[in-house]
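Hello,

Our lab assistant flagged a job as stuck in the queue for most of the afternoon. It eventually completed. Since we weren't sure the result was trustworthy after the delay, we are filing this so someone can double-check. Below is the sequence as submitted and the structure that was eventually returned. Let us know if re-running is recommended.
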Amino acid sequence: MKVIFRTDASPIVGYGHLMRCRVLANALIDLGVACVMVGPPPSERTEADAGVFDAWLEQSEWSTAGDDARTLAALANKYGCGVAVLDDYRVDLDYQKVMLEAGLKWLQFDTFADQKMLADWVLSANAAARHERYEPLRERSETLFLLGPKYALLRSEFIEWKPRHRFSENVQKILLTFGGGDDRGATLFCLTALTHVWESIEAVVLLRSSSPHLMAIHDWVSKNQGLRINIRVDEPEIARRMNEADLALIAGGMTTFEVASMGLPAIILQIADNQALNSRAWDELGAAKFMGSLENVKGDDLRQSVQLLIEDSAQRRSMSEVGKSLVDGLGSKRVANILMNKEMPEES
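-- returned structure --
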């Protein structure tokens, strides 16, 4: 059995898509399943990828959904792949119809629950994902919905570090991380709004070398000497840094599942439209505090929310326990077993 992955290669959203495809591919490799990657350029391929993907095929061009689907179906046939994984927001009903006609079984990632579904498996780890939202989208009785945080695809480091988590009554470190792409200015906004906090509490800031705001952040830090700010670029041990922190300021994407698994209380600032439902749901579940969309958040409101959580250890402890209970870190293994018919999904 081989599985072919098709994911977005764009610099804005491609990083998160590629990351979770890698995680699922690793889980499939553990089951003896070979994988093929279609989409990202060779520059995104790492040494580790060489041991996971038998082939890495760049396909950044996109003419129409139908054409892309036909190309993918042809590649699946060429490489002997019987199952496909689609992690691309551009996949629509036309794309799905081609996949169905080609006789391919496929897993489709979804966020918005806003179109009809023909896939064999539909995966949405979104904290707001519920069967009542997805059932009206069902077009085939065979479709299985994999919904909720228990299907979050996390790297193995989070499983390794989760048992080491120890809750702290006092906040000594606050982690700032807003994903692997463009943070839309969220990091600099938080650093500036919380200037006085960094006089006594350390800020650990995770950034990628490709961040468009990296120079501006370094410039701000250099102009604010004496503050306790630790900038870490291309940090290889994200779970370790989360384990060391007592509170986090994050975006509403994949990081929400990571901090939840680590029991790290968080304040979420939404930096993209596709994060709204997920961010709000974490707040409603009691695992995080949602501030709203970044452009609507005022510095004074952020300062107040951070200070309240610093002073309220009982609320932080509750957030920590809720998060750990919702994300066990085994989502990739769970999904891989389902794709290989070794496990049936549980209804969310």
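-- support follow-up --
The delay was a queue issue, not a problem with the job. The result is valid. Residues 270 and 293 are 5 Å apart (CA to CA). The mean pLDDT is 94.
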